[in-house]
Here is the input.
Amino acid sequence: MSGLSLDEAGLATLVEAFYARVRADAQLGPIFNDAIGDWPEHLEKLAAFWSSVMLTSGRYKGQPVPAHVKHKSRITPALFDRWLALWAETTNALMAPPAAAALQDRARRIAQSLQLALFFRLDDQPVPRPAPHSSGATDHPLRSVQP
Here is the structure.
C-alpha cells in the first residue's frame, strides 16, 4: 500500500483515524473525551488545522495555545510524548513514508511550541539583579569627569 496522499482527503482520513486512537487511549482518551463536546465539529477543525499547517490552505482560524491552556491542569509533558507516539504510529500506518516523516516532524515542532507555552515561565528563572554600588562620584565613568 502506498499510503494516503498528503492532500485534503488524506489529511481528513488521517485525522479521523488518529483521533479514534486518541479517544480509545487509556492516557489521552479521558482528557480528550472530557474536553471535546462535539467530536465531528472538532475533527473538522483539526483537519483544517493540518490542512493549514501542511498545505498552507489557511483553512484553520482557531488559536491552539488558548485552547490547550484551558486544560493545562490535566496536561503533562508525558502526555505530549504519548500523543506524538500515537501520531507516529498512525502516520506510519496510513501515509506514504515521506508524508509520514513530514507530518511527524511538524507535530514534534508543534508539540515543543505548545509545551513552551504551557510549561515554560520566565518568572521561574532567576532574575539577574544589578550589582549594588556606592553613591561615590567615581562609581560612574561620567561622574569622574569634572566640568
Remarks:
- Residues 17 and 90 are 7 Å apart (CA to CA).
- The chain has one domain: 8-123.
- The chain has a mean pLDDT of 84.
- The two ends are 85 Å apart (CA to CA).
